[in-house]
Specification:
By secondary structure, this protein is of the alpha+beta class. It has a single domain, classed as Tctex-1 (Ribosomal protein S3 C-terminal domain), CATH 3.30.1140. The chain is built from 2 helices and 6 strands. The protein has helices spanning 33-48, 58-75; strands at residues 16-17, 23-25, 28-29, 80-90, 111-118, 122-132. The strands form 2 sheets. It has a 3-stranded antiparallel beta sheet with strand order 1-2-3, with no helix packed on it. Helix 1 (33-48) packs antiparallel against helix 2.
Length: 135
């Protein structure tokens, strides 16, 4: 079955490596955190931008954010496998949230970025991890 409107996955032949062995696509090197952050920001704004916290909508919101992030990441047509995490919590006095991650990978080509977004009633933290499929 075709990808019904989704961009085609990255083909291995679309990438090269430079003299340092870094992944290069269309002259770009490595994981582009600025572009990924913009995709995540847009996904959050589209999915929950004007909403107030409602526990019954958490699953839908996180699914919408995942789908929008992954669609945007696929449109980059970069040689990466992606993992996306999402945490949505109510904004209330005395509520604290701490999130960390650790990765063992090739820092020359792999990368991650985390976007923290908030409105009057909730916090949303989305992390994207990109692991190069070519080296």
């Amino acid at each position: 079955m075709a990808n019904a409107g989704r961009p085609e996955p990255f083909a291995a032949g679309d990438a090269d490596t430079d003299v340092d062995g870094e992944v290069v696509v269309d002259g770009e090197v490595g994981f582009d955190c600025d572009r990924v952050s913009a995709i995540v920001q847009d996904a959050i704004e589209f999915s929950i931008g004007g909403c107030t916290f409602q526990e019954c909508k958490l699953r839908k919101w996180s699914t919408d954010i995942f789908e929008a992030c992954l669609a945007g990441l696929l449109r980059l047509r970069r040689p990466y496998k992606y993992a996306v995490t999402c945490c949505i919590v109510p904004r209330a006095a005395g509520v604290a949230l701490h999130a960390d991650s650790a990765c063992y990978w090739d820092t020359a080509v792999d990368g991650s970025c985390t976007v923290r977004w908030e409105n009057a009633s909730l916090y949303c933290i989305v992390s994207v991890f990109g692991m190069a499929t070519t080296s």
